[in-house]
Design goal:
Helix content: 25-40%
Order of helices and strands: HEEEHEHEHEHEEHEEEHEHEHEHEEEEEH
Protein name: Haloacid dehalogenase
CATH architecture of the largest domain: 3-Layer(aba) Sandwich
Radius of gyration: 21 Å
Strand content: 15-25%
InterPro entries: GNAT-like (IPR041065), HAD-like_sf (IPR036412), HAD-SF_hydro_IIA (IPR006357), HAD_sf (IPR023214)
Number of helices: 11
Number of domains: 3
Number of strands: 19
Strand order of the largest sheet: 5-4-1-13-14-15
Pfam family, one: Hydrolase_like
GO molecular function: phosphatase activity
Distance between the termini: 28 Å
């Protein structure tokens, strides 16, 4: 099943309509080290109903076993083979160009080191060892020394591959610099644009779908520019939950390549049918809510998640049809 151009409808709960959920971690299953309300119960219920889960994360610093352990500790029992990390995707991307035994300078945590070694490459620590590639992923310990070695190697011709390009990283205290910010330092020093294995590239989704032999996958994420852009890029339906980075207003203003197929307040949406807005007398109507764009302004009637869905339908249709939409007319929407 592939994603349509706008919001989709489902007459049955999403956990019945799709056989595999590709679930983001930060902002969806948990926030930092804290649980997100309804996440554990909803994922457990979806799994009990037959939906398989694979947790897909742009975090490349940790081993799948560590991620599985954290999820299990948050009442989401998970095995390591149910985790797909950006480190694994990065190593898979390296295999498309490098021969087994090639030297790779790894800048990142042990998860990336393990993945690169498991893919058959020799891990080195210095640009003077003439690596064929630089694999760069986020880890809290990454500092100037490692970034400098990466810049030296890339400047000498090594292939630069990033596990992901997330500029920010959600933590319990707020947003911190992500791998994209660190990759940016190497790019600024070398002028070389890196390739990326993580979201929004659909590589991880494809690998996870192949691993699970799934036929009806659903991507679940909180970031439009990574999770949902990756879903669109891979042709997978995407569920945007409003428990993380991207807000309801962000969804209304989303560019076509980042738009979700479904919208919900949280993961309880897996256990419920989804209505799609319908056009009636110039208004996009969803449940008891309605929205339209008139004279370049978004006009709203109603509240809750149905209003967000109606607003998205009205805004997307207007913009795609060549109308102007004043972003100032789009308020912060609460659910």
């Amino acid at each position: 099943m592939t994603a349509g151009a706008g919001l989709l409808a489902s007459d049955v709960p999403l956990a019945e309509a799709y056989d595999l959920a590709l679930v983001d971690l930060d902002g969806v299953a948990y926030r930092g080290h804290l649980p997100i309300d309804h996440a554990a119960a909803s994922l457990t219920a979806a799994r009990s109903g037959g939906m398989r889960l694979v947790f897909v994360t742009n975090n490349a610093s940790r081993e799948p076993e560590e991620v599985a352990g954290q999820l299990t500790g948050l009442d989401i029992p998970t095995d390591a083979d149910e985790v797909m990390t950006a480190a694994q995707a990065c190593a898979a991307l390296l295999t498309t160009r490098l021969d087994p035994g090639a030297k790779v300078l790894v800048v990142g945590g042990k998860g990336l080191v393990t993945a690169v070694r498991a893919a058959g490459f020799e891990v080195v620590e210095s640009a003077d060892e003439e690596p064929d590639a630089v694999a760069q992923g986020y880890a809290p310990e990454v500092g100037w020394t490692q970034l400098a070695e990466a810049a030296y190697a890339v400047g000498r011709g090594a292939w630069h591959v990033a596990s992901n390009l997330d500029l920010s990283l959600p933590t319990a205290r707020g947003f911190a610099p992500g791998n994209g910010a660190l990759v940016g330092a190497v790019r600024a020093a070398t002028g070389v644009v890196p390739d990326s294995a993580g979201k929004p590239s659909p590589t991880m989704y494809r690998l996870a779908v192949e691993r699970a032999a799934a036929s009806r996958p659903l991507v679940i994420g909180d970031r439009l520019d990574t999770d949902l852009a990756g879903a669109r890029g891979g042709g997978y339906p995407g569920l945007h939950v409003l428990t993380g980075v991207s807000t309801a207003r962000d969804a209304v203003l989303a560019v076509p390549g980042e738009r979700p197929s479904y919208l919900a307040a949280d993961l309880r949406a897996l256990l419920a049918p989804h209505a799609a807005p319908e056009l009636a007398d110039g208004w996009y109507v969803c449940g008891s809510a309605a929205a339209r764009v008139s004279d370049g302004e978004l006009r709203l009637d109603g509240e809750g998640i149905d209003l967000v869905r109606a607003a998205c339908a009205a805004a997307w249709a207007a913009v795609d049809g060549g109308q102007d939409l004043d972003p100032a007319s789009v308020p912060e929407l609460t659910v």
